[in-house]
């Protein structure tokens, strides 16, 4: 069935994103635009303009709908991609099922797309960090128009969509073009976002999202896997869960570029003078339920040892300051920060707390909080979920806790042994630099 879709498009002339840099792909100006068909035909000279136009738009429906364009004897694609989108005209989707496929552009580029801003942690870890050394990659984000993405696709041999949404018309449209151009479609998952695990997702457990709404959304979103030629995942648990849906599934763990690590000399120079500085990294509101694992132990220690440590809560957490202050504990609340500033804040502390309820969804989560903290010479005390159990050896390069009692006793032990914190933090730094840096 042909569809009529309305796309809000920004400026016409595209910019490539090669390793996060935006460079003009041609020297034309917006006032004197070159035909999109001409540009695409230059990129793929083996394809005729007529064929390219048939991939982009339903010429007949567009001209029948817009009498002024038909009477002016202007082609639908030339009009729409030069003027029509500026006039908020509607794009009529081609009948993709009846268009013959092309050969794959084997020497093409690898394209990566996430419908989110570039300062998003997912964009950093699943695109820009992972592909930092790949000079043949094009990075795309939510600011890029359908025209910019189309130009990237005509240069591509493969495209990776990170956390794509089924209802996103721009993504659905471009996947259809990819299928016609034989561009390999890869879906990237960094969380266990399948409907059968809805009840375990942090947003549902924390009451941030309604189960039914989330479940229905995940059913729709996961259907996009039917379009995938391959899937990449951040953890083995996600990969194992998807292996019965897609044949080609691989794991690519999250890593941090070495330039974000402080020097080993700076780690060795760290000292604990006075109170031990404890940091809880919350992130989003979806971790409210996870925080409950440590709220009791923290309150007990605050009652009995308010002069031994300070507590900082970073992220979207409810304001607990008045509760801890009641016991005389120095407590600070810091909202979500940009990536580098978050690392700076971590570096100012001595221990980072990462509580996660033990379930399959959290077992599938990456250990980026261990990596980020260790990169700043700070060891992590974490729940014993899969990825943290894989990278942490208790009392060697961090601490694993499975019960509230373990959280309480481990914290009490460290408050009395600050030198042990420094030794463990150095080991955490070394293990992260060796195993989780690029």
Task: Describe the protein's architecture and organization.
- The protein has 438 residues and is α/β, with parallel strands linked by helices.
- The chain is 40% helix and 17% strand.
- The chain is built from 20 helices and 16 strands.
- Strands 6-5-7-8-9-10 form a 6-stranded parallel beta sheet. A 6-stranded parallel beta sheet has the order 13-12-11-14-15-16, with helices on both faces.
Into which percent range does the helicity of residues fall? 25-40%
Question: Structural class of the helices, strands and pairings?
Answer: alpha/beta
Radius of gyration: 26 Å
Report strand order across the widest sheet.
Answer: 6-5-7-8-9-10
In terms of DSSP E residues, the strand content is 15-25%
Q: Which features would summarize this protein structure in a list?
A:
alpha/beta; 6-stranded parallel sheet; 40% helix; elongated
SSE inventory with pairings:
Layout: E1 4-5, E2 15-18, E3 21-24, H1 36-43, H2 49-56, H3 59-65, H4 67-71, H5 76-84, E4 91-92, E5 109-113, H6 121-128, E6 137-140, H7 146-153, E7 156-162, H8 169-181, E8 184-189, H9 202-205, H10 211-222, E9 230-233, H11 236-242, E10 249-251, H12 264-268, E11 276-283, H13 288-304, E12 309-315, H14 321-326, E13 330-334, H15 339-347, E14 351-354, H16 360-363, H17 368-375, E15 379-383, H18 386-391, E16 399-401, H19 404-416, H20 418-435
Parallel strand pairs: 5-6, 5-7, 7-8, 8-9, 9-10, 11-12, 11-14, 12-13, 14-15, 15-16
Antiparallel strand pairs: 1-4, 2-3
Helix pairs in contact: 7-8, 13-19, 17-20
């Amino acid at each position: 069935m042909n569809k009529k879709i309305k796309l809000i498009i920004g400026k016409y002339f595209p910019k490539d994103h090669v390793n996060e840099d935006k460079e003009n792909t041609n020297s034309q100006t917006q006032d004197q635009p070159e035909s999109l068909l001409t540009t695409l035909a230059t990129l793929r000279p083996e394809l005729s303009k007529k064929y390219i136009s048939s991939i982009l738009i339903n010429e007949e429906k567009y001209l029948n709908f817009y009498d002024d364009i038909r009477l002016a004897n202007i082609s639908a694609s030339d009009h729409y991609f030069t003027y029509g989108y500026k006039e908020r005209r509607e794009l009529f989707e081609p009948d993709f099922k009846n268009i013959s496929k092309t050969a794959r552009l084997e020497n093409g580029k690898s394209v990566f797309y996430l419908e989110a801003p570039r300062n998003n942690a997912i964009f950093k870890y699943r695109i820009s960090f992972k592909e930092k050394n790949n000079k043949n990659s094009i990075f795309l984000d939510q600011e890029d128009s359908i025209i910019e993405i189309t130009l990237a696709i005509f240069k591509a041999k493969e495209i990776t969509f990170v956390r794509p949404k089924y209802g996103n018309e721009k993504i659905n449209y471009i996947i259809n073009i990819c299928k016609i151009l034989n561009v390999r479609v890869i879906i990237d998952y960094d969380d266990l976002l399948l409907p059968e695990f809805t009840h375990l997702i942090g947003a549902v457990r924390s009451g941030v999202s309604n189960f039914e709404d989330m479940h229905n959304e995940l059913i729709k979103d996961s259907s996009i896997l039917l379009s995938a030629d391959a899937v990449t995942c951040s953890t083995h648990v996600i990969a194992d869960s998807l292996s019965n849906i897609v044949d080609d599934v691989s794991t690519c763990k999250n890593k941090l570029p070495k330039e974000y690590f402080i020097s080993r000399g700076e780690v060795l120079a760290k000292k604990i003078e006075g109170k031990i500085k404890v940091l809880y990294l919350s992130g989003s509101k979806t971790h409210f339920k996870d925080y409950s694992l440590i709220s009791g132990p923290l309150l007990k220690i605050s009652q009995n040892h308010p002069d031994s440590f300070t507590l900082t809560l970073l992220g979207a957490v409810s304001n607990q300051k008045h509760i801890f202050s009641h016991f005389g504990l120095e407590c600070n609340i810091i909202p979500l920060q940009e990536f580098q500033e978050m690392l700076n804040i971590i570096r100012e502390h001595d221990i980072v707390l990462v509580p996660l309820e033990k379930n399959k969804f959290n077992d599938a989560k990456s250990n980026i909080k261990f990596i980020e903290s260790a990169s700043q010479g700070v060891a992590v005390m974490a729940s014993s979920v899969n990825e943290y159990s894989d990278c942490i050896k208790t009392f060697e390069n961090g601490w694993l806790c499975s019960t509230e009692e373990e959280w309480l006793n481990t914290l009490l032990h460290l408050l009395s042994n600050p030198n042990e914190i420094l030794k463990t933090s150095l080991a955490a730094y070394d293990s992260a630099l060796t195993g989780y840096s690029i």
